[in-house]
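Please review this one:
***
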Amino acid sequence: MTPGFSAIGIVGAMLGKVSNDSRSSNLAAMHKDLLSAVHQAHLELKNLPPGCIPGMTGNTKIAMDDIISAQRSLAHGSSEVHVATAKVSAARKALALGTRAYDKWLATQH
């Protein structure tokens, strides 16, 4: 696999599941799916995208850190669901920004 790209799509899909769990108020599923995303986030942090792609590495790191922070918030109990949900939203936005940065960089490589 290409360094730094192995888990980004997987993490994005997992965050979609966490968002759906939140909207349906399924706290048990949200916790389970967020733990899975945290596992992937840790893997991605060990294998960040190359720094030669402006905007991708930083946004990917921000997204992974937000995922880990969201899980910590959720671990504090149901009163922190809104905080965890906001952090998941921020992570999804950062992943999208990183993906756009990659697409922009890729377009210049042809």
Q: What stands out?
A: The helical segments are 8-23, 27-45, 56-75, 81-107. The chain has a mean pLDDT of 88. Residues 8-107 form one domain.
